[in-house]
Structure formats: structure tokens, C-alpha cells
Amino acid sequence: MKTHTRIALTCLALAAIAPALQAQNTAQTATVMIRADQSGPVINRNIYGHFAEHLGRCIYEGIWVGEDSPIPNTRGIRNDVTAALRDLDIPVLRWPGGCFADEYHWRDGIGPREKRPAMINTHWGGVVENNHFGTHEFMDLCEQIGAAPYVCGNVGSGSVQEMMEWVEYMTSGADSPMANLRRANGRDQPWKLPYFGVGNESWGCGGNMTPEFYADNYKRYNTFVKNYPGNRIYRIACGSNGGDFNWTEILMKNAGRRMDGLSLHYYTLPTDNWQKKGSATDFDEAAYIATLVNTLRMDGLITRHGAIMDKYDPGKKTGMIIDEWGIWTDPEPGSTPGFLYQQNSLRDAIIAALNFNIFHAHADRVAMTNIAQTINVLQAMILTDKEKMLLTPTYHVFNMYKAHQNATALPLALSTPDYECAGKKIPAVSATASRDKNGRLHISLVNTNPNAPATVRCDIAGLGTGPKRVSGRMLTAPAINSVNTFDAPHTVEPEIFSEATLSGETLTVPLPAKAIVTLTLE
Ligand code: AHR
């Protein structure tokens, strides 16, 4: 529950015109009442999941360089990238798409690489896909980074038999045709496949289906997604495009009892216009706040889709799986348009943190999310340029927030001033708190206002004789559009934050402008 004061902090442009207003851009106070004496739902660590599609330079170059590459690699997968991803504790990785999933035929991606047939990746630049990265390589990647595989099957252009045999290929330990084919390709033991998606965006690139038609198809395909001994699959049905609530209604009504999870895709577009989304780096403060307004819509979407799910599933057994989210801007000037390569700024880091705070607040329903996408595509963690690699501001947020994985969300009430610019208004401060299994408290705070600091007073009910030592990290940068580049890869990086003070049950945090702070009390 949030309450806002009526004081609005203004944007710099306005303050420059009216110096009197500038006085308002001094520190304001926000208060957060954290109930450490109560417990909310567990923050499923899968909320910190990722998505890697055969799109642009995500798989090829970003992950897969091939065994003969001069870039250091393990069985063709680049070592610098896996080391960085391991450090994020990525719980789950979704693959091979996205739109690509519904034109992917898994048999093309197994066996000796030089014999694998090529195909055209019609969705993403019409490039020729050589299928050198297939099932074995994906499973190897998951093992190397310690993530659980989430495979998305082909409903749009694939057959039921094809899907059924893929699941057998991956998970059966029997002396059966597909399991033996897998063995012939060098993998004796079946893999664990905990998550399987039955189609992607079936309302669009996955087949342009109506919800009724997809619900029937979901049931048909899903019937043949078998649980072989030792492997239980969590089945994820294709869910809505943003605010298409009718899709959720029909899917829950017609197929709800046969799924474990229902997906939701929502991208943050700076301009809200798919034809001209807005630049990743060249934006002013008005575009900044407009983008944050758009990202905060995630909260209402989860609430409304969740309410429909509650109608059919009051026990909240079916997970909401937000398996594509993040900021989607115009591609980087000079890059191949269909490759969706975009830079990543402090704004994107703030977007990631705001979304995590929202996901935590809905942890009773949101069971998994997968940011789009891990490397070189959309809101990436990592950008590569041949042998070079850099970590984006978004990467650092995932790293700073990972302490919340599988922790228990703590109920909180926030009172914050607003941040206002160009006729738009959002809460200046966003907050989340959790307690991990070792009793440590983790508090994450965001100051969306790029012009004014905020003093955040956290009243932690029930802290009592609990944790007393505070440590923290902060991510900020010289400007809201600051980025890391291959020439200057450390411009936006977390730093130690030791300004928080604890007195009794009150934690006082001087939160700088445009900053994300994560604190641990132990
Ligand atoms: O992430 C890029 C694309 O966005 C995915 O392929 C598709 O599912 C969505 O429209």
C-alpha cells in the first residue's frame, strides 16, 4: 500500500526556468514501514530468470563462438560470458525463442554440426541460421552457468509429434528411439527439463490465433508433453500480450486446470509507439519520466491479470510467468535493425529495479520472469564486440538484487514524495524488503528523481534484537543516460554505500538522486 505526499519534486528544465522551484529539489523525506515481524510470500528465485533467443547476436557471438574461435571458450561457449552469468546466480534460462521458437525444428540442431541443415530466421533479419547451437549446446550452457533450462516448443509451425519427440529426446532414460538418438549424439543420461513452454506469442508471431483456438491447441500439444520417469515438467501456456485481459480469461477458463503457469509479455517502450520507440541513449528528462511511467504499468497489469487468474485459481496454484519484459528502444544507430541491439543506460537499471520491486510485491502470483534478453539484444546484461565484453547497468542491478532470491517478502507501507516532470508524475521512491533463510534483511530502494536526493526513513517493526550491522551497495551515474562502452566499461558500476545508519528500529538512508541502493542488515 502506498501513500504519496502532495509535494512534487520538479524536473531540472522547469527548475531552471523558475529558480524558486529549485529549492524544492533538495532532499525530501520518504518513509517505509517494514514489517519484519510478519512474513509475506517467498520471492521465487525464478523471478530473476533470463531469456536468450536466436536473435541478432544473442546466441551467435554473444554465447556461441564455436570451438575453434580464438575467443576462450568451453565447447564453443565463451568463457568470459559464462563467468559473468554464473556470478548472477541465474535460476532459469528460456530458449530458443521468442518468435524463433515457433519456426524452430529441433532435429535440425542435433548431430554433427557440419551436417546440420541451415534455415532462414525469418523474424530476425532473415539471416541464415546454421543450427550450430542446438539442444546439446543449450543444455551445456545451462550446466555451465548453473541455470535450469526452460525450453519453448513450436506450436505455430511444428507438429504435436515433433514436440512430443523433443521432450522424449531430452528427458527419457528408456531404451527408446529418441533417447537412443540422444545417446548416439553423445549424451547418455537424460537431462532434467523442469520448464516447458507450449508455444510463444500464439496471438501474434506464434500463429495469430484466437484465445479459444490456442486454448484448444494448448490442450492438444500439452497432452503429449510427457513426464518421463525422474522428470516432472512445469507446463507454461502462452499468455497475454500486455493488456489483453480477454486472452487470460479464455485461457484460464478453457485450459487453466491443465497448466502450471500462464505467461505474460509486457515491454517498456519509451514512447509507447512501436514505429518509433525512442532512443536508448539520446533522451531528455521528459522522455525519461515517460519511460518510467510506462514501466510502472507492469504493476497494474499484474494486478488485473492476477484478478482474472484468482477467479479460476483462488489458491494461486498457477504461476504468472512474465517470460518477456524489459525496455525495448530503437536499435543502436548503425546496427542491423532486425538484430534489436540497444545500449543500456542508468535509466534501464532503474527500470530493472522498479520491475523487481513490483514483482516482489506480487510474489504470491508471479512465479517466474525472464528479462529480454541476456546478451546483445534489448535490455541485455552483457554486450560483446568480438573478443570484448562489457557488463551493462542492468547486469549490476541483477547482481545487487540477487540476495532477494528465495527470500521471504516483508510487507511494507511506503510514503513517498512524487517526482514530477513534463506533466507526468511518479513516486520518487520505490522500495522492497525481504528476509533470507539466514535471518538477514535485504532492503532495496530506488530514487527515480534525477535531480533531488531523498532521505528514506525505514521503520522496521520487529527488528528488536535482530540484525544490527548494515552494509550496502549503490548504483548511480553522472547522468540518467550514462552507459558503459567498450572504451569506458566502468562508468556505471556499483559502489560501496555506507551512509545508512541504524538507530533502534529506524534505518535512515540518504538516497542520492537517480540511484538504486541495496542494503543488508545482519
Ligand atoms: O524479445 C523479442 C521478441 O519479442 C520475441 O521474439 C517475441 O516473443 C516478442 O515479441
How would you characterize this protein structure?
The chain is of the alpha/beta class. It has two domains: 15-41 and 410-521, Golgi alpha-mannosidase II (Immunoglobulin-like), CATH 2.60.40.1180; 45-406, TIM Barrel, CATH 3.20.20. The chain contains eleven helices and 27 strands. An eight-stranded parallel beta barrel has the order 3-6-9-10-11-12-13-14, surrounded by five helices. Strands 1, 2, 18, 19, 22, 25 and 26 form a seven-stranded mixed β-sheet that branches. A hairpin with a 2-residue loop joins β15 and β16 (388-391). α5 (160-171) packs across α6 (177-184), α9 (285-312) packs parallel to α10 (346-361) and α10 (346-361) runs parallel beside α11 (393-401). The protein is globular, with a radius of gyration of 23 Å. It starts with a strand and ends with a strand. Residues 1-9 and 13-23 have low confidence and may be disordered. The structure holds alpha-L-arabinofuranose (AHR). The site of alpha-L-arabinofuranose has 10 residues, from loops.
